[in-house]
């Protein structure tokens, strides 16, 4: 099988989503409510599994579909605000943006979140500022469908990821502008739609409260500083993928850094003095979620993390594509070319741990020696979900009463998934990606180690 971003092995978080999505829908809702995210991605993945099977390609294809739809809505926003040409350029930049492209193949909720919020922003803009009414009857039809579209896609985003709320803060600021300085009728209409969205979200209010309570008790992220903020913005603009280690001749510059400088060239040649109101809205969409989560992380629980905020990338690409000067064509063309090179390299050179190949080896070892008892070692990360997905019977070994933090998927871990004491057996196989020297089993001696690009299989025999 050719190894690329479609076919590469799943990793821990993807494995968690896959295993959960194989359950019946009532169980999915019950378990995910005890985790840290809403259920929409898992419901869609459950449906895809029922129709097409549970392969890696099915998981990545579903994410890719939502990514493509988000790009289509980016095109529609650019066409609505400026022209179809601007929309097309924005769509191309968004599609090729390295960070956005990377998560088009991630079996998690990030592309479905980006779709929901991009569509929500499209209907928000269409409804209040750029709706062209040719006749009263047609205008009323457009208005009604636009309002329904806004409520639907906003709820879609909220049921995809909690960070959608930070994007709604940007819409809320525009609402306050309408109330204070703009069209108050528009403001009242928006307020009513906010109420409809709130009513639609009521079923998830209690699970949300419980999930926030868990996160507020401590999360795995550290407190971000200004450097982290700068890195995230640079990653979103151009530097999202740094795996291509190619230095530009004579400049002694990595290719992703040249992409960033090319983006700066677009910004410098943009006609900022035109369409200020439109640009301001896009800036709110980009900066409000980023800065809000950064500030929250300074004073409360750290929640600032790049992939949680990738839904802001289409707004940045819309800024780059719009209000172009004659000089802008040069840095825009260069940016598109560099993005395409970086993305192609990423697509054909996946970096996830090769768990599928690893599992085939482990299964062959188990078939040759039935006396081996297999365990997962909890190092910096456990591999219970990958093991379950690839059907390797390997419970987590947690001696001395050690417990797992909630954010590693404890809501899905069953009693039989954990062992506290080693069984009385002659051989034990250990799954780990950590330092092999940290694996110490009393009464056993390590006799063999197999390394799969970071994944290790350790064999211990009883002394």
Describe the model.
- With 463 residues, this protein is α/β, with parallel strands linked by helices.
- It folds into two domains: 337 residues, no CATH class; 108 residues.
- It has a six-stranded mixed sheet with strand order 5-4-3-6-8-7, with helices on one face.
- Helix 13 runs antiparallel to helix 16 and helix 14 packs antiparallel against helix 15.
- The two termini are 41 Å apart.
- About 2% of the residues have low confidence.
What's the arrangement of secondary structure elements?
Layout: H1 12-21, H2 25-32, H3 40-52, H4 56-81, H5 84-96, H6 98-102, H7 110-128, H8 136-158, H9 164-180, H10 184-201, H11 205-216, H12 226-239, E1 247-248, E2 253-254, H13 255-269, H14 276-299, H15 313-321, H16 329-348, H17 355-368, E3 372-377, H18 384-389, E4 396-397, E5 418-419, E6 427-432, E7 444-452, E8 455-462
Parallel strand pairs: 3-4, 3-6, 4-5
Antiparallel strand pairs: 1-2, 6-8, 7-8
Please compute the radius of gyration using only Cα atoms: 25 Å
Biggest sheet statistics: 6 strands, mixed
Tell me the span between the first and last alpha carbons: 41 Å
The structural domain count equals 2
Compute the average pLDDT.
Answer: 92
Shape: globular
Low-confidence sequence ranges: 131-137
- The helix-and-strand class reads alpha/beta
Give the spatial strand order of the biggest sheet.
Answer: 5-4-3-6-8-7
Annotation field: number of helices: 18
Helix content: 55-70%
What's the number of extended β-strand segments? 8
Could you spell the SSE succession in H and E letters?
A: HHHHHHHHHHHHEEHHHHHEHEEEEE
Which percent band covers the strand fraction?
5-15%
